[in-house]
Write a structure and sequence with these properties.
29% of the residues lie in helices and 25% in strands. By secondary structure, the protein is of the alpha/beta class. It is globular. Bound molecules: 5'-O-[hydroxy(phenylacetyl)phosphoryl]adenosine (DLL).
Length: 435
């Protein structure tokens, strides 16, 4: 596949130059932050009296962290750095309860965000002639509109399908010859599981690519979607606080996600000591946004665990890459003292051909101990009347899980289509110990 760039000068900028640009933009960001109620109080507490205190990128470490709760407390306008009348767009974070976390963009911010998003799409090889069906939810969530703008900016024909309405999704894919889709990985799996009801197979479609993100998923889930749909699947990472999708995206090599460093400074910290760790080491991703005047965010703790991949990508881009998210510091389960990430469980079960596309992890109290129950759907041909086969499969799944997470789970097999599905982000974990 041909390597394509949207903005070659920036995407392949020599690292020294890129860092100079980051420093210049960081200074501007800090100056902008002083215009907000929040940072004008917070920065002086860390001994920062103005943008002139930032002399090198090393000075980033002197700046305080920002956490999700800061955004909640500043709701609605405590982090706004421009007059309200300059704001043209707002978004709010999904999946939060209580006070939402909101972000704001000026017209210039929106243009910069859109440009970055287009850059991400072009990196996967799409072009103006592609037909893009956006199956991410439209609304306050960034997943729908932000990528929509990026795709339109490239000149693709955009179908703002949003999620839901399976039969219409298939009809549009067929009628408009959709070549690229955007969805959560779980929605891609769900759609595939319903395909037969509409008498469609992947070969009836012109689909060649899918962008998946917004929720954790393993490499095996990517492969599963690629095989089931016979397409290329690209991982896309982002969060509403940082303008949503487009922040980090895989290129045609599908070998980890380029984080656009002219627009973001990415650090990896040890979540315990809060000290930055060297490239290549795993830790919590911390981001500073450099291209948003309406609402600067400095050293924002994402809670997502990843690492910066050392070395340069074959595509020639100099922007460093983030590895697939391993999980969040706050979705880690501790089961009888053992730390487990739901992604580890998914990785094991999705590798097994007998296992279907949906699963649910339940953690309960069982006397003084914790009990881990892994409910998985199985493919139709597996559910036979022979209970010995089913026992053998359960034992095999449990054994594979034990080898990976060091916990003996209770495995339950469920009929295809019987576990709850969601059109948005899948709820994969029920921690009943907390209820
Ligand atoms: O999920 C933005 C987005 C939309 C990204 C569409 C990609 C595609 P939020 O709702 O604020 O924003 O959720 C952000 O979702 O901190 C991660 O924990 C998780 N997440 C997002 N993308 C990925 C991914 C959008 N590719 C939170 N892999 C983030 C793993 C992801 N986790």
């Amino acid at each position: 596949m041909e390597i394509k760039y949207w903005n070659k000068d920036i995407e392949t900028m020599e690292r020294g130059e890129l860092e100079k640009l980051q420093l210049q933009r960081l200074k501007k960001t800090v100056a902008q932050a002083f215009k907000t109620d929040f940072y004008s109080k917070k920065l002086p507490q860390s001994g920062i009296s103005g943008a002139e205190d930032i002399k090198s990128l090393e000075d980033l470490k002197r700046l305080p962290f920002t956490v999700k709760n800061d955004l909640r407390e500043a709701y609605p306008y405590g982090m706004l750095a421009v007059d309200r009348s300059e704001v043209v767009r707002m978004h709010a974070s999904s999946g939060t309860t209580g006070t939402p976390t909101t972000i704001y963009m000026t017209a210039a911010d929106l243009a910069a965000c859109t440009d970055i998003t287009t850059r991400s799409l072009v990196a996967t090889g799409v072009e103006k002639s592609d037909v893009f069906q956006n199956m991410m939810t439209y609304g306050l969530f960034t997943g729908g509109i932000v990528l929509h703008y990026g795709a339109e900016n490239l000149g693709m024909m955009v179908i703002p399908a949003s999620s839901g309405n399976t039969s219409r999704q298939f009809k549009m894919m067929k009628d408009f010859q959709t070549s690229v889709v955007h969805a959560t990985p779980s929605y891609m799996l769900y759609l595939h599981s319903r395909m037969h009801e509409f008498d469609i197979t992947p070969s009836d479609l012109k689909l060649s690519k899918a962008y998946v993100g917004a929720e954790p998923h393993s490499e095996d889930v990517r492969k599963k979607i690629e095989t089931l749909w016979n397409i290329d699947v690209y991982n896309s990472y982002g969060l509403s606080e940082m303008n949503g999708p487009g922040l980090a995206f895989e290129c045609i090599y599908k070998d980890c996600m380029h984080v656009w460093e002219d627009a973001y400074i990415a650090e990896i910290i040890d979540p315990e000591t809060l000290e930055p760790v060297p490239d290549g080491e795993e830790g919590e991703l911390v981001l500073t946004i450099l291209h948003r005047e309406a609402m600067p965010l400095i050293r924002y703790r994402t809670r997502d665990l990843t690492r910066i991949v050392p070395g340069q990508c074959r595509c020639g881009r100099t922007h460093r890459r983030l590895e697939r998210m391993k999980g969040r510091t706050d979705d880690m389960l501790i089961i009888n003292g053992v730390n487990v990430f739901p992604s580890q469980i998914e990785e094991v079960i999705m590798r097994m051909p007998e296992v279907g596309t949906n699963y649910l992890i339940v953690v309960q109290k069982s006397g003084p101990l914790d009990k881990l129950i892994v409910k998985t759907e199985v493919t139709k041909d597996v559910l036979t009347d022979d209970t010995r086969d089913l026992y053998a499969l359960k034992a095999k799944i449990a054994e594979n899980l034990k080898a990976s997470i060091f916990i003996n789970p209770v495995v339950e097999l469920h009929e295809h289509g019987s576990l709850p599905v969601s059109e948005g982000k899948a709820k994969r974990v029920l921690d009943e110990r907390k209820e």
